[in-house]
Design goal:
The chain has 439 residues and is mostly helical. 84% of the residues lie in helices and 0% in strands. Helix 4 runs antiparallel to helix 5. The longest helix is centred in the middle third of the chain and has 37 residues. The protein is globular.
């Protein structure tokens, strides 16, 4: 493979990696800050975060779909069309965010009770969720604007916004939770303020670029509807994936409060590792979309092969790091011996799955960049259905406590292996390699 392709991957992936790692690191900081309020607060943050991240992440197509469309138009040398599509995506993000906020504020407590957590955990989680919901419009605007910039082959600007924004989030959360003393509500307000700042900063960058090319910034109903329609398959794909994560948290809630608290941290660690591995997926989205827009199939194949290899080796490195730290990490999140023991055991299983996760994330990004969203929707639904029998077996076995948490994470690891195998099968074929501008 030509050296310039490797340089292009690194140019896009390194800033994306720093941006993606910034978010989970400060989510870990939030967990550590809230964890010292008590086990119920940490467990409440766990179920509230599951709902909040689902509400935000089901609309991740605002980033992924926009990246693919903008990258294709960039590859076809249609810069005005690329930015026009991006503006439509930002308007769609704002409208969807306002709707999501209304739903979560109205149904915060009933949504959390679905997980079967204790009354104390639900009360803490309801406080966090009801406040954090007001930050969802900003979260979705950040997703859409980031997608536009990635499609334009710029991952550096989102990196700067992420590092500044999440640093502010961590500082605000600590000050509001402890010195000010408003508890878990402080962590929620810190998130809302930081997300609003990020949305304004990234929005200004995109809008200036659009104005410079004479692209209208007004809401265009047809363009917004087109962006929404194009995002439906990716929405289905994301809903199926989020269903797996929510189902896993639901099962963890039935294992006991210490195990749910441990699961919250383990899932946050897994998400941190996923974000790190997803840097290659983001590079894959941008490179694949641009290359297919320019009709260069050979470049797509070469870049994909390289990124898959790098994903596996990156996963191996993460495995070694987590195994080495699996008894150290719990010390930063809880003083409860049962929570620490359960978390240490779960982290070993989390670590073992990282090389396979590297394959899954890279190929998912490549296929998203290619616009293969319809296949991804059907495939991810199939992966979800394959996970259901594993969860059912765990439920009927009656295993609880730390053993139950370990088996739950082992089942999740098998799900990731099935997902990686399915994506690998698709990537070996030719049907997804469609060239030119498709929208």
């Amino acid at each position: 493979m030509p050296t310039d392709h490797r340089r292009e991957i690194l140019r896009l992936a390194v800033p994306a990696f720093l941006a993606l790692v910034a978010e989970p690191l400060f989510l870990l900081a939030d967990s550590a800050i809230v964890g010292h309020l008590g086990t119920s607060s940490l467990a409440g943050l766990g179920v509230a975060s599951a709902v909040l991240l689902t509400a935000a992440n089901i609309f991740v197509f605002l980033a992924y779909g926009t990246t693919a469309v903008v990258a294709r138009r960039t590859g076809a040398h249609d810069q005005r069309g690329a930015l026009a599509a991006g503006i439509d995506g930002i308007w769609l993000a704002l409208l969807l965010g306002l709707g999501a906020t209304a739903v979560l504020v109205a149904f915060a407590e009933p949504l959390l009770r679905v997980f079967g957590a204790s009354d104390e955990a639900v009360a803490e989680g309801t406080t966090y969720l009801a406040i954090s919901a007001f930050g969802i419009p900003a979260m979705l605007v950040v997703l859409a604007a980031t997608g536009v910039l990635r499609g334009l082959q710029d991952t550096r600007t989102p990196m700067v916004a992420a590092i500044v924004g999440f640093t502010a989030n961590a500082i605000l959360s600590f000050v509001l939770v402890h010195p000010v003393g408003i508890g878990i509500a402080g962590a929620a307000w810190g998130t809302v303020i930081a997300q609003a700042g990020m949305a304004i900063a990234l929005g200004v960058v995109v809008f200036r670029g659009a104005r410079g090319l004479g692209v209208s910034l007004r809401l265009h109903g047809k363009g917004v509807l087109q962006a929404a329609g194009g995002g439906v398959p990716l929405l289905v794909r994301t809903l199926a994936l989020r269903a797996v994560l929510l189902l896993t948290t639901w099962v963890a809630a039935g294992l006991g409060e210490p195990q749910l608290a441990a699961h919250q941290v383990a899932m946050t660690v897994w998400s941190s590792l996923a974000f790190a591995l997803d840097a290659l997926a983001i590079a894959g989205q941008a490179i694949t979309g641009k290359a297919l827009g320019a009709g260069d199939v050979r470049a797509v194949r070469a870049a994909t092969a390289t990124m898959v290899r790098w994903g596996v080796w990156f996963g191996v490195i993460l495995t070694v790091v987590i195994v080495a730290l699996h008894r150290v990490i719990p010390l930063g999140f809880s003083t409860d011996p049962e929570v620490k023991a359960a978390l240490a055991a779960a982290l070993l299983v989390v670590a073992a799955g990282q090389p396979v996760a590297g394959i899954a994330f890279v190929l998912d990004g490549v296929l998203i960049g290619a616009g293969d969203a319809r296949w991804l929707a059907f495939a991810q639904t199939g992966f979800l259905l394959a996970y259901l029998p594993m969860v059912w077996l765990l439920q009927v076995s009656g295993v609880t406590g730390t053993s139950g948490l370990v088996w739950l994470w082992a089942a999740f690891g098998v799900f990731m292996a099935v997902r990686a195998a399915g994506l690998h099968w698709r990537a070996r074929g030719e049907d997804w390699l469609v060239t030119g501008v498709t929208r």
